[in-house]
Specification:
heterodimer, A: 394 residues, alpha/beta, Rossmann fold, 2 domains, 6-stranded mixed sheet, 5-stranded mixed sheet, globular, B: 115 residues, alpha+beta, 17% strand, elongated
Chain lengths: 394, 115
């Protein structure tokens, strides 16, 4: 193990290098990140034996990854923003073919207006494409999640693709401290790749991607896909626990801070969860009963566990870094609201949308949100359910 | 490159109409290859190719052009057209340098057959 000062991109590229998969298919030009660039460097330097396929678009990157994974190779790619959007149709195919591809995603805004900075519009837009989604707060979590993704994706009860997110620029481009593992530790943790129904296995020929129309079994296959998602719920926890036992950093579906006796709980995802935690610690020192729940697993969504963790709250504030146009609120808000509706307690739930297109969020903005929630907790129900933080009024 | 061994037995799908989500191969994979042959696409056809044996000199251009592998060849001779799979696209008639293939309305062709 070593402690390094490294960017989020650099940490993730290093994690991928330590796993050393068989194939990386990536589009190496913007909106791609340094992950693909750094990995290409590793290949060029002869540090890894990975076959690097430089394709002509992100649509082709995912198509090549699908072909490679179906052929029986451990396969990765990486993406961000418009590149993620261009992969769109192939993301569903990777998941429905049950190919355990892993993909770090640097979350950034989608055009338009043209903007390259951090928000969650890209990955949240792809929340229903059948991929497992793990969100990291910082470069350390990006590194750890990128490694665990292989174990989760390749588990025989799951066999689904996994995307691991970190926030664009704020984490991906900033240098921070990361505890890295040794190459051998990573390789041993991830283990050897076991291909299922490989196209290159001539002893057992298979047909992949066949037509399945009216009168067929499309519906049944979709249910099987959702069962694999349900199985992933336990597998993500098992892998996170084992990672903790071996390396001292344990992972679950989410993490709570000061939630148990809190009247007000903020729910956050991504890098802002760290800012919220700082504010919560400060407010606790003032005697205010505030807590924070940081979501890591968004797909499959840990509905029951989150409902249980938030059951004591009077008021919940859900923070979304992407909006869902015409919906009741952002993606995390609707998910948390639906979870709480199925429970015994029915706390008030408000949505705070922040940080679109890279807009900063300051501790004062978070404190302002808490003040609003405190009024609601005192019985003064807020007129609006959806609020925007750090925006120009008018 | 090693050749694919001929499959020993067909995928047993005798009761597939009853199969629920748990019975299928993961990812809708079919555990055998070469099964496009089982899908008879001839029913899609609205025009049928009719070959004139007198004009045809077995040049095989239609064989290479056919997108459904429906030109049957034996001993270097174009034997006939596999109407169970031919979708009637007419590419063979287009590419034939000797105009030896004519496309006939499928209903008329069926009536001719009946006579």
């Amino acid at each position: 193990m070593a402690r390094k000062a490294i960017t989020g991109n650099g940490a993730i590229a290093l994690a991928l290098k330590q796993v050393e998969p068989d194939v990386m298919a990536a589009y190496p030009i913007t909106p791609q990140t340094e992950i693909a660039q750094n990995y290409a460097q590793y290949v060029a330097n002869g540090d890894v034996v990975t076959e690097y396929i430089a394709v002509e678009s992100e649509h082709s990157a995912m198509s090549a990854a699908i072909g490679s994974a179906a052929a029986g190779a451990r396969t990765i790619t990486a993406t961000s923003s418009q590149g993620f959007a261009l992969m769109w149709e192939m993301l569903f195919i990777a998941a429905s073919l049950r190919l355990p591809i892993t993909m770090p995603v640097i979350t950034r805004a989608l055009s338009g207006p043209i903007n390259i900075h951090c928000d969650h519009s890209d990955s949240m837009g792809g929340r229903d494409c059948g991929w497992i989604q793990l969100y990291g707060e910082d470069a350390q979590e990006g590194y750890d999640n990128a490694i665990q993704a292989f174990r989760i994706a390749e588990h025989m009860d799951v066999r689904l693709p996994v995307m691991t997110m970190i926030d664009g620029f704020i984490i991906s481009g900033a240098i921070g401290p990361v505890e890295t593992l040794d190459d051998e530790q990573v390789k041993e943790f991830v283990g050897d790749y076991v291909a299922v129904n490989s196209l290159l296995n001539v002893e057992k020929p298979v047909t992949v991607g066949a037509f399945d129309s009216l009168g067929g079994w499309y519906f049944e296959h979709k249910i099987a896909q959702n069962r694999a998602m349900e199985n992933a719920m336990d597998v993500i926890e098992e892998v996170g626990r084992e990672f903790g036992e071996l390396f001292g950093r344990e992972y679950a579906h989410f993490k709570t801070h000061e939630v148990e006796d809190a009247d007000i709980v903020l729910v956050a995802i991504g890098s802002a969860a760290g800012n919220v935690k700082t504010v919560v610690t400060k407010l606790r020192a003032e005697g205010r009963k505030v807590g924070v729940l940081k979501v890591r697993t968004f797909r499959p969504f840990p509905t029951e566990q989150i409902r249980e963790a938030l059951s004591g709250a009077k008021v919940i504030g859900v923070m979304d870094r992407s909006d869902s146009f015409g919906a009741q609120g952002g993606p995390l808000f609707t998910e948390v609201s639906a979870a709480m509706y199925g429970g015994e307690s029915h706390p008030q739930i408000y949505n705070f949308i922040y940080g679109l297109g890279g807009r900063d969020i300051f501790p004062d903005d978070i404190e302002g949100a808490v003040e609003m929630l405190e009024k609601a907790a005192a019985g003064d129900t807020l007129a609006q359910q959806r609020h925007y933080l750090n925006v120009r009024e008018g | 490159m090693s050749k694919t061994k001929p499959r020993k037995e067909k995928w047993n799908i005798s009761d597939i109409q009853k199969w629920g989500p748990g019975r299928h191969e993961m990812g809708a994979t079919i555990p055998e290859s070469g099964n496009a042959d089982d899908y008879e696409t001839g029913g899609w056809r609205s025009e049928r190719p009719l070959r004139d044996r007198e004009k045809c000199n077995d040049c095989m251009i239609c064989f290479f052009a056919c997108p459904d592998s429906s030109i049957r060849v034996e001993n270097d001779k174009m034997v006939d057209i596999d109407l169970e799979h031919c979708k009637g696209c007419g590419i063979c008639a287009q590419v034939c340098p000797r105009d030896a293939i004519e496309m006939l309305n499928e209903i008329k062709a069926c009536k001719l057959e009946e006579k």
